[in-house]
Amino acid sequence: MSDMNILNKCMLCPRKCGADRLSGEKGFCRAGAEIKIARADLHMWEEPPISGSKGSGTVFFSGCNLQCCFCQNHEISAEGKGFELTAKELADTFLMLQDKGAHNINLVTAAPYVPQIIEALDIAGDRLNIPIVYNSGGYESLETLEMLRGKVDIFLPDLKYYSDKLSADYSGANDYFGRATRALIKMHELVGQPEFDENSIMKRGVIVRHLVLPGCRHDSAKIVGWLADNFAPQELLISLMSQYTPMYKAKDIKALSRRTSTFEYEYVCRLVENCGFDGFFQQRSSAEDKYVPEFFDKKYY
């Protein structure tokens, strides 16, 4: 069982804001003491070994320790949409998704709620027997990741930026690359290299996601280079995303007010292929806002 007292001076993420969440204070991520989610359902739009044929049992948590100006999920990451659950209700939600046929339980932007999630997983216990996916923006504390040892089977982190200036300008985190790369190394230590079942559904491992942003292909190239220098091709998978669409505040930022070009995306794809990594490339048609799920402010299931 997780110790909830950690929330009285919250240090769960690299911002270490020290918010007393148990007394009603909220930190940078906008999370309080209660679990808050905005959606729990089967999700078909993750990578093939995550969504498979039946879907990933995805739980979207409210709040975020990054404030990306182009966030597709800004309704929940920045604007606080969602509804509260107890740890017991979250455990029941996990079991409900498993009963619906989910290949896994997919925890999206869960860092502010790690202690409560551990409590919910403990409540579910052996009744929950599908992999747990930690789906993250990559800006993680090593101490919080260590809390997930033996609880999480698959890590699905972003590696968004190499440049500290880009991460400061676009996500409000000028230490992003250093934090995210150390976190990625820790994630790999916790779960090892990719493993799959007989239906090619992932059981363990790490998939690193990178979204190619307009005008940032050289930054993307540095990220691919870092991955090649620090991991052997068989140690992780890379998911290279082309889905960038100007949304939220990005519509008003000139450099981000267009879609990523085919040239930019294919340039980075070639670099990934040349480094020998396996992974996933997106269809250009995925860059549409229709793929953003509906979020709720009242429990609907």
UniProtKB/TrEMBL annotation:
[4Fe-4S] cluster binds at C64, C68, C71. Binds 1 [4Fe-4S] cluster. The cluster is coordinated with 3 cysteines and an exchangeable S-adenosyl-L-methionine. Pfam families: Radical_SAM. Residues 59-190 form the Radical SAM core domain. InterPro entries: Aldolase_TIM, MJ0674-like, Pyrv-formate_lyase-activ_prd, Radical_activat_CS, rSAM, rSAM_sf. Belongs to the organic radical-activating enzymes family. This is Fe-S protein. The lineage of its organism: Bacteria, Bacillati, Bacillota, Clostridia, Eubacteriales.
